[in-house]
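Hi there. Long-time user, first ticket. I'm pasting a complex I've been working with (about 558 residues overall). I'd like to know whether the download I got is complete or cut off, because the file seemed smaller than I expected. Thanks.
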Amino acid sequence: MSVLVFVESKHGKVSKAGFQAVTYGSKIGEVTAVTFGDVDPSVLGEYGAKKVLLHKGLKEANDQQSTRLVVEAVKETGADIIVFSKDQAGKAIASRVSAALEAGLASGAIALPVTDNGFVVKTNVFSGKAFANVKIKTDKKIISLIPNSFPAEKVGGTAEIVEVSYDLGEAGVKVLELKTQGEGVPLPEAEIVVSGGRGLKGPENWWMIEDLAKTLGAATACSRPVADIGWRPHHEHVGQTGLAIRPNLYIAAGISGAIQHLAGVNGSKTIVVINTDPEAPFFKAADYGVVGDAFEVLPKLNEAVKKFKANQ
Amino acid sequence: MKLLVCISKAPDTTSKIAFTDNNTKFDENGVQYIVNPYDEWYALVRALELVEAKGGTVTTITVGTSADDATIRKALAIGANDAVRIDTEAKDAYYVAKQIAEYAKDKGYDIVLTGKETINYNGAQIGGMIAELLDMPYVSLAEKLDVDGDTAKLERDVLGGTEVVEVKLPFALSAAKGMAEQRIPNMRGIMAARKKPLQVVPPVDVEPLTEVISYEMPPAKSACKYIDPDNMDELVELLHNEAKVI
Ligand SMILES: Cc1cc2nc3c(=O)[nH]c(=O)nc-3n(C[C@H](O)[C@H](O)[C@H](O)COP(=O)(O)OP(=O)(O)OC[C@H]3O[C@@H](n4cnc5c(N)ncnc54)[C@H](O)[C@@H]3O)c2cc1C
Ligand SMILES: Nc1ncnc2c1ncn2[C@@H]1O[C@H](COP(=O)(O)O)[C@@H](O)[C@H]1O
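Hi, the file is complete. Here it is re-exported in full:
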């Protein structure tokens, strides 16, 4: 089966979620990756891409032009299956391509397709509280994969790189400026996340979260009220109305674990909850629980991690 | 300005999620429906603010059956001028997008607003599909929107930051948090909503591209292991050796 994987690039690098999507695609068939910009995409071969189509003329993941790029690449490769990462850019482009090709889209896949009865993909619905098995009924099939739901694997191959120069038409959306969130790992890509809620009492106490995050090489997050009152920036808000994340480790301090908060973090592999209230609902979703005061537990945990790292 | 806001209903965020008919249908027993929060709090309210400041109309559009009328009236109570319901069950994302695009294509809307995603299906598909079908630019995950003449300026969420973008009308967008503040409808709005036009139009013929064949619940979590707050070394040890995450 011929699989086309769209890989976003930014600041001269192909995205990490792209590696996961290439690994995923290579379990289904022979992968051609398509990417753009001033990047060296040869690394995609290491994750299993046999071929990479590179469009140097396109500089950013502009949704109209990226859609044309993918549509042209599908024509060129005759791909039956098209894989996107369901991140910010991938979401928009996957749905445009679906409409352009009239090809069914399984949005938010967390597993490989099952093909013994049609082509069925398991996807996340109800904010991670359930899964839907989506059957794609068209000949061409599109899958958008939830970041961090499928690990990237290095298989050590090499990809043939082919520069393409398709006419991509106009970019309807003009980018004036990019405001970055400063250094540190972007939250959706982070493997470890340390998060705080209203139990931390005020923004002046966030050093406890930040210190632990720094020791662990983690990103920081927060509950919605914390972002709403302005203790923390909005982009840190996780949950049903914020960002949904799936890190390997999610440490929540002073967060009660309301159903809307859980909706954004229940895909995490391991959850640690620190809360003074043994009845806090979050403990039901936790793998490890510490009933205690975050003001004491967080610094102690930070020291323990430092000691552990020093002995590694 | 002529604005079209796509409104869908969604189960209240505290609803118990369960399935019936051999796990093929969402169990609606005891479920309260609300207007999908992204559509209501952000897309609709920002559309109303723009029209209040610059003149124009806000029409809502919903693909659904008469069971959706209560949520449509809520959108009218918040302030939309009129509503359209395409009278059919929402079969899949493409089916819905095609219905909306077919209705909107010759009506000259300046902006088609959708929510970031529905909180039940989390597809985040329909806005992009409508944009493609109407051959419009699409600004997804927009957190700010201002319009000046025939040009709009928006901020949107991208990987690792926020992008400031400019686009010419007409275009489509999906609205995320930050775009506006929730509005609670008042008594006058609720009374007025009863008299506002809700036009019911027949669907066009469209084959859905996908179908949900069954639902599953995630495997139950094993019980939480409690660790003494004075023994963080033990927690670190477990995270390393048992969970293997550090
Ligand atoms: C439609 C809708 C959408 C929503 N979307 C989201 C969303 O996306 N994300 C989200 O987070 N919320 C969301 N909410 C809000 C959600 O319902 C909760 O109100 C919110 O998550 C609570 O935040 P919190 O846990 O920080 O605060 P609280 O509920 O106030 O909990 C604070 C916790 O801290 C504990 N605590 C207090 N002192 C200490 C201490 N010293 N040490 C340790 N623990 C301490 C307390 O025991 C308590 O459990 C939404 C709500 C609605 C209605
Ligand atoms: N049945 C529907 N009728 C009208 N608009 C809808 C419908 N379903 C979804 N939408 C719109 O499309 C957005 C994205 O939905 P989804 O692709 O299902 O996540 C929603 O926030 C709504 O604005």
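A couple of notes from our side: Residues 187-310 of chain A form a domain with the Rossmann fold fold (CATH 3.40.50.1220). The mean pLDDT of chain A is 95.
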